[in-house]
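ARCHIVE CARD
SHELF: 3
SLOT: left
DATA:
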Amino acid sequence: MHPPQSALSQSALIVIDVQNDFCPGGALAVAGGDQIVAPVNALMGAFECVVLTQDWHPADHASFAANHPGAAPFSLTEMPYGPQVLWPSHCVQGTDGAAFHPDLRTDPAQMILRKGTQPQIDSYSAFFENDHSTPTGLEGYLRSRGVSALTLVGLATDYCVAFSALDAARLGFAVTVRMDLCRAIDLDGSLEAMVGRMTAAGIALQG
């Protein structure tokens, strides 16, 4: 039996990867990453549907520079699905680095989506693996909840937030990114490039 339309949530807050390893002191720290936690917590009450995503890598993940002898962190390599940045090992399953920031409210979340769990493929987007075709299942969850509009916050603006936003727009969701509630890595101009791509895709950038 389907719930009445009034019970369905039309908008959702997607909180991307607010985890210890992406915050100051973490293995892949984003400058100021911890500054967004309190305002993100405050925003949760404005949404009936809240989803948290969590990078959740096996230790032997192919995107880790440590698993490519001689490769430097932040260098590029070619994977079957295209170019891949080789990252410092981060958000390894079950470690403290993979845990949510201790001040992040997790109780309001109806769903926690773990991504990057397959050793041979990375997942920046909350919707697809980096081959841009293998789904995570998030779209189906949101559709079944009656969600048509998304607001994205989190880490990092130019990677997991932007790729999630672009995929959401491609799937037909109305997408807003709260730029004031994101922080960027900005690797070789990546922030400017991804802001351009999001703007071109019709994504609303606020804050």
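SLOT: right
DATA:
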Amino acid sequence: MGWFFGFKLHLICNEKGELLNFMITPGDVDDRKPLEYKAFVEFICGKLVADKGYIGKNLFERLFVDGIQLITKLRDNMKGALMSVSDKLLLRKRAVIETVNDELKNVCQIEHTRHRSVDNFATNLLAGLIAYNLLPKKPSMNIEIIDKSRLID
């Protein structure tokens, strides 16, 4: 009696907690796979903060060519890798995406296991994403971007 649709929801959000893009993949797909699609990362410029699941030299180089700097925590066996202080501070703010995921699951109710069809699953997921976008207050990072050209030497 029941169906199980094993899917992963991959999200890209900005520092204000606004969703920029999303992709649904089967549950057995590697986390790095969606970043290989240009259409998924077309809204990104600058820095992309991710968890350790996104570590990969090929992915880092491919994104770097497109003008995206991938920032992840370092694994214990990654010797000699240097990271700027600002990147380390950004990694501490990575909890924003976890908070976004939590609000999507608990407030917008996208984590629902009793779907009877794929259409019902897709409808519930899209309704939850729309509901999240309509929330008046979203989790955000309190960062201020400084234009270095306006600083006096």
